[in-house]
Amino acid sequence: MIKRLGLLVSVAALAAGCAQTPPTVSAAAAPVSGNTPAWQQGRAADMAGSTLAPLAGKLTVTPAPDIPLHNLKLPPGFKAELWATGAPGARAMARSPSGKIYVGTRGIGRVYEIGDNGASRTVRIVADKLTQPAVTFHNGSLYVFAIDKVLRYDGIDANPGVQPVDLTAKFNLPPEQHHNWKYVRFGPDGKIYVPFGAPCNICIPGEPYAQIRRYNADGSGMEVIARGVRNTQGFDWHPVTKELWFSDHGRDWMGDDTPEDELNRLSRPGQNFGFPYCHANGVADRDIRKGNACDGVTLPVKTMGGHAAVMGVHFYTGTMFPPEYRNALLVARKGSWNRTRKNGYDVVVVRSNPDGSNAQVTPFVTGFMNEQNQSFWGRPVYFLQQPDGSLLLSDEQNGAVYRITYAGT
Predict the structure, then answer these.
(1) Whose CA, among 1, 95, 202, 352, lies 20 to 30 Å from 41?
(2) Contact 333, 344 (CB under 8 A)
(3) Pairing label, strands 271-272, 223-227
(4) Residue 339 has pLDDT above 60, yes or no
(5) Could you tell me where the beta strands, DSSP code E, fall in 267-320?
(6) 110 pLDDT exceeds 60?
(7) Over pLDDT 90: what percentage of the chain?
(8) What are the residues facing 314 on neighbouring strands?
(9) Cα 377 to Cα 399: distance, rounded to the nearest angstrom
């Protein structure tokens, strides 16, 4: 057995994945050792003096007056208001039938419930001390999906104190944490879709990782539907074709602008999206090399910028926004760290044909970052469309949720 980044990969699995052209692995792709942090893996020797490092999240409550919402810029007729605050680390959201919003986190390990009485919102902690939990709601139950645990809260909408059903054993979760944090949702087929990111910046990941799976709601019937997916942090289904579209983060330490993050479309189960050999629009990896690295790889619908940290994606289906937003895809870009000048920190709109062709990207929400001094105050991450057609947008940096509406010009 070969040990790589704490992950056991069988020789047979490596041989099967590389039967045509054995890969060449450079020293930069070797496992980290000693006290070297995992995020430095893949950094070449000539970058040893770099000051680039991940940006620490703010995991304390940000009072509403300290959130400079007036800095946000949206297209004419749109407005963003502070809908809720007091949920540090807020990420993906799920809505119950009564209108309660459940919110997952990453660094702080909590699940929140946001109650709405129409005039104000209240926040309570549903679960704590979990490992990077994500949430989704299905058939009256809240599903909490952490790296090492799956919990189902039946009837929590009406019974806030309900104890969870532990489904962990049925999902057979691999243990590595790096890029294994979750975004989960139930698809149009009634199955739960779950990503298992690469346990590294760049490595040969092994069978349980760099893939998207789907399961029946009880954890049975597991299928791997996409491979070569380094780190997807959001997905949605096209309203017309019902095909899965998803974001994916490009690897670090190959330069400011390459490889770019990706917006991908899964037209059939089983497609390969390239990791670790091929990135973005056909960029061969610098450290793990093989001949014809991009042969058979499904290339993105659109590349989304170097290290922009593309997160939630959402096809807008409401009627509040103008007609040109119907079935358009909104993409939250949390913002870069592995780049000399910051990139992202915004929300963009991607309009394309249903098959992904002719994709065009335009700004939608900007102002989270000051380009001149490279400072930022917010990091947009996920969307939730409300029944009235308004759009909730979570901000992980401030633990806040904004409501975006359109009233016309």
Answers:
(1) 1
(2) yes
(3) parallel
(4) yes
(5) 271-272, 278-279, 283-284, 288-289, 302-306, 310-315
(6) yes
(7) 90
(8) 330
(9) 12
Sort residue 372 into left (φ over 0), alpha (ψ -120 to 50) or beta. alpha
Return d(Cα 336, Cα 246) in angstroms, integer: 18
Angle at 309 between CA 306 and CA 313, to 5 degrees: 120
Backbone φ/ψ region at 117: left (φ over 0), alpha (ψ -120 to 50), beta: alpha
What CATH number matches the domain at 2-24+87-406, 2.40.50.200, 3.40.1360.10, 2.120.10.30, 3.40.50.300?
A: 2.120.10.30
Residue 317 has pLDDT above 50, yes or no: yes
In this structure, are residues 192 and 186 in contact, taking their beta carbons and an 8 Å threshold?
Answer: yes
- Please list the residues that pair with 405 across neighbouring strands: 79
Write down the pTM of the prediction: 0.94
Listed by start position, the domains of the chain span: 2-24+87-406
Of the candidates 154, 156, 196, which has an alpha carbon nearest to the alpha carbon of residue 177?
Answer: 196
Q: What is the DSSP string of 141-171?
A: EEEEE-SS-EEEEETTTT-TTPPPEE-HHHH
From the DSSP assignment, how many helices (H) and strands (E) are in the chain? 2, 33
One-letter amino acid of 269: P
